Each structure stands twice: as structure tokens, then as C-alpha cells.
């Protein structure tokens, strides 16, 4: 105690109390022989913990056994079809609609179309529409580049579609003045004609600036009358 008192001389009360606690803890550790035990643990050799031996999986080459194809009960009694017996030259192929001669396909009009010529074609189309049966729905559409040259998408008047056109997607037939039929795809949510319109436009040489009268003679059939617009050089293309 005297030695401890000497060591704490000149210390603040806090430092003196801390030093007394340190000395007290040292005496307790010596009484429990903890210092010797800690030294023994540090000097002991490190030995790895035993690990379980790994089991290696031996994967043998799988033998693929061919199994018969799964067939429904309704088809189980039918004879199996062997496609190898069908020769390529005898197999039925999809037939395509005959193409028009190349000279009937016009991708661009020679010459330019003025606004006056466009309005004149539309005016003639409106005059033609006025001569049709008023009980049969119809409308006039001025042809644009996106309708007949690139894109081939023809939007129809919204009020006309809401009143007369199918409420779901359908096949709409375009009937020309020679009663030749061309099927197109009508998209109800977009209110326009898409697939098949290119064939109709190219076969009839419809150009940017022309006008057309669409007369709904049946729920899914349009009678189409084409009015040609004159070029600036005064020429007018006919079918």
C-alpha cells in the first residue's frame, strides 16, 4: 500500500484512482495465474482443425436411350407420319398471288406535283363521290407519299371508322373499277389499312398527289375509284 501511495504522488485524483484499479487488476490476475495461461496459449503450436474428406462425384457417360415421341390419346391410333418419305419436289408449297408486270409498278412519278394539281385531283374525287349513291357510305382520300410509295399505311377518317368499320381487326377487300379484288389488313385500334395496301397501290400505279374515292359497298369491301393528278408538265397517268 505504501508503494502504491508513493507511485500516486504527484498525480491528479483521476489518474491516481485509475492507477489503483490497474494495480488491483494485476493482483487478481496473478492470483488466478492468468498471465501464465496466456503465455502458454501463445507458445502452443498451431495445428489445423481436422476436415472432413471430400467425396468426389464420378460422372459416368450417360447413355441416351431413344424414346418414342409423346402423342396425345386422340392421335395415338393414327399412323405415324414419316416426313423423310416426302420428296422436296413433290411437297406442296404455298402459292403466291401472281405479280403484275414490272412496267405497271411505279415507285415515283416522273415530274413534280404542284399543290394546285393535288387540289384539282381531290376536287374531281369529291365530284365523283357526289354522284354515287348517298345511301352507301363513302369518303375521299388524297394520296400521300407514305400511302403509296413508302410505308404503305393508309389512315381512314376517324368518324367513318367509328360509324361503319369493324370494331376489331379484319380483312378489308379493295375492289377496283374492273372488279378485281385485293385483300388488306384493317387495324381497328389504329383505324387504317396496312398489309396488302402495297399490292393494290403498286398494281394500279397510284402516286403521291392522286386522290381516291372509297365506297363501302359491303361491311368489309370498298369500291375504289382512282383520280389521277396531272404533273406540272401537263401529263396525266392512266391505268
TrEMBL record:
Keywords: DNA-binding, Nucleus, Transcription, Transcription regulation
Single Gene Ontology MF annotation: DNA binding
Stretches assigned to the TF-B3 domain: 139-230
CDD domains named in the record: B3_DNA
PROSITE patterns xrefs: B3
GO cellular component: nucleus
Nucleus recorded as keyword: yes
Compartment(s) of residence: Nucleus
Protein name stated in the entry: TF-B3 domain-containing protein
Organism: Miscanthus lutarioriparius
Upper taxonomic lineage: Eukaryota, Viridiplantae, Streptophyta, Embryophyta, Tracheophyta
